[in-house]
Write a structure and sequence with these properties.
about 90 residues; single chain; about 80% helix
Length: about 90
């Protein structure tokens, strides 16, 4: 029973992750986003596909968590860049 709950939660997080990845495409091309945030995102993707894990588990919880944190930081940097542009043009 517990495994079904874990798998369902993982699928829900994966759906959120897919939406955020789709939105991240334009942020990666934005010149206002710091390169460190972009590299953090790419590093999280490398960690996702690498065979090395911090927590060996069958549902990739640590991989998804690392990627979600990197996406959150990328989106925050994008919001700051948009605010900076709005202040600069106003």
């Amino acid at each position: 029973m517990f495994w079904w709950v874990l798998v369902a939660a993982t699928l829900a997080v994966a759906a959120v992750l897919a939406v955020r990845l789709f939105r991240a495409r334009r942020l990666l091309a934005d010149s206002g986003i710091p390169m460190s945030r972009k590299m953090l995102f790419w590093g999280a993707l490398v960690y996702l596909v690498s065979p090395v894990d911090l927590l060996p588990d069958p549902v990739l919880l640590d991989d998804i968590g690392v990627l979600l944190v990197a996406l959150r930081m990328l989106h925050r940097a994008g919001a700051r860049a948009v605010e900076g542009r709005a202040e600069g043009t106003g």
